[in-house]
Amino acid sequence: MPWPRRLPGWSTALLAPTKETIMVDLPKKKVGIVSCSGEELAEGTVTRLAALKVLEHLRPSDTVTICLPLFLAGGEADRAFAKFYPTIAVDGCTLRCAARGTEMYSGKPAASIVVSELVAQNGIEKPEGLRRLNDGGMQAVDLTADQIAGRVDELLGRHWNRLTGEFEGPVSEQLPVELVVEEPVVATCSCGSGIPIQKVCIDGQSVTLVGLPLLMQQLKVKGKPPSDDTARELLEMVKVYNQVGASEAEAYMYALLREYRTYLVKEQV
After folding, report:
1. What is the mean pLDDT of residues 190-209?
2. What kind of fold does domain 31-168 have according to CATH?
């Protein structure tokens, strides 16, 4: 049976967007690195080697890799991670494929690094060689890796002291929000950090909504009742991380209100 097209007592004003969308307080425990996948330029090789150096040696506990080809092809876990966590796009040239792809499917990267620009700015020999880089290419790897590590520290609010080889000041790490949810499935990235997703039946179709468990938890913490106003607020929050067409808004609100009511009942058990 299809879902009702309109809830009793709902007016068209309910469909109007709110002036201010409330963003959920999401964990920012790690930083995702999206490196160029181009293989026709030596600079592309530089991006991947630099990212690997950061992931394995410079900041192994603070970073994860996001596979650009899988990301562009629709990898659910990678896109979910990039929507909720800060990302650094590392491109080989000014085409900025990694940065543009990230912005198109998840959100604007928190930082963008272009190897060709770094090479020009620092007077390094142009990188050459696809499988085996020349001296200029290896210098570019080290320089790019240092740039990435520095941006990671900035995003996590830390300062690395090069003389002591340690972080200065207290190291504060925001831990993931503890969730007690039975139904949602967690889409995991390569580091094992998961972004909660939930499958919802909307207008007779099964739709996967990224972040819905966290969003409902946020509303519960604020003491929001399962009402029309709450449904509208939840919809605006969901639209930040998921595509919702204007013609689908009413069906989404009906489904979200139903899911929120169910969530509150389960939390009381």
Report:
1. 74
2. Rossmann fold (3.40.50)
